[in-house]
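Chapter summary example.
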Amino acid sequence: MTAIVRDLHPPSRDSRPVKAALTPKSRNRPVVENDTYAAFTCRVIAAHARRIATGDIERLGDLIALYDDLDAAIASAVTGLRACGYSWTEIADRLGITRQAAHQRWATDT
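The structure predicted for these 110 residues follows.
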């Protein structure tokens, strides 16, 4: 349960390249997921927490494992953004923190 869940669907047999969207600074990036998927994920985690709150104490450790997985996923996302050329300021702005705080938190991961 502590490993980040990977995509369980096999790759498509369609060999056409994925269309890339342009960011405001003209960086190409593939469109992987969308806001609807992120919202769905949030609802699943909230439902899991509600179930635990009704007395399923045995699953509390599972929720902590999700927290650890999310922390690892954020570190991976920041590492990827840095590899794509995004600055600490750009990353920090999206997170509502200072550039220094973002650098201090994730610089050792990159």
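To summarize the output: Residues 60-83 form the longest helix (24 residues).
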